[in-house]
UniProtKB/TrEMBL annotation:
Cleaved signal peptide residues: 1-23
Name the record gives this protein: Phosphate/phosphite/phosphonate ABC transporter substrate-binding protein
Key words of the record: Signal
Pfam family, one: Phosphonate-bd
Classification via InterPro entries: PhnD (IPR005770)
Family, as annotated: Belongs to the phosphate/phosphite/phosphonate binding protein family.
Keyword flag Signal: yes
GO biological process: transmembrane transport
CC annotations in GO: ATP-binding cassette (ABC) transporter complex
Protein source organism: Nostoc edaphicum CCNP1411
Amino acid sequence: MKRRNLLWYSLLFAAGCTTGVNSTNNSSDQTEITAPKNIKFAVTDITGIEDLQQDYGAFRTTLEDILDIKVEFFPVENPTAAAPALLSREVDIVFAGPSEYLILNARAKAIPIIAIERTNYHSIIVVRVDSKIKLLSQLKGKTIAMRKIGSTSGHIAPTKLLIDAGLDPKTDFKVVMLDDKGVEALKKGEVDAWATASDRYKNILESEGLLEKDFSIIFKGPLLPNDVFVASNQLAPNFIADIRSRMIQHQDKLIQSLLTSKALQRYKGSKLIAANDADYNMIREVYQKIGQGKFL
């Protein structure tokens, strides 16, 4: 998913829980699946209906065919807006990044359906090729360009790497959020290091007209938590289980439909796997360390 500027959005919202009324359809076996007549689908980092259609139109159509239920887009105003939408049953299924998953899970008791594993999704720390900095611990007292507050690969995970290297995120280094312009600031010497995602690195350099030979990756972190599809907890459990089963069974079609969008090439080579809540504890830990534990 695109990285997210989560903490700039409102941390408080008021939403009442409503009880959805589901229709009952007969499945091919003797078990009745309690399913609604249609479902609303949102993506946490896509705000407009036109962008949803452009990037996820093929996926929506494929999901509709697989589930044999009408799927409608529901644009959200910002990443955190999906939580009250789930609570009020304005939306049924949300595709979320790792940080947003924690918000939806904590604030709306969203149920993970399935995760999508990316083959090259790591955080990397980059310096200029002529830098004397070779170790993360040498970034003490330095300025680091990151992407956006709440970005998994461009803020949360790099902060975890620095914490593991013995640095205090509150006192030992300065962070500036520069989105993809962090590499330009590094090139000019305005920052000492730049944190980004491994699957974005070359594309960012290319878009800025910069060369790999001018930079050095001093650290590559472990594979990051997966993006995840979550469901409203007001949907019937057997319906959620049925969605999970069908998505796994038809995952090749679903992933291929994502790849029809130029913006979603990061999912090339991906696969759908079981979502494990414990995989996201790293993000919870970082929020605690930076003094934002109440956010989740």
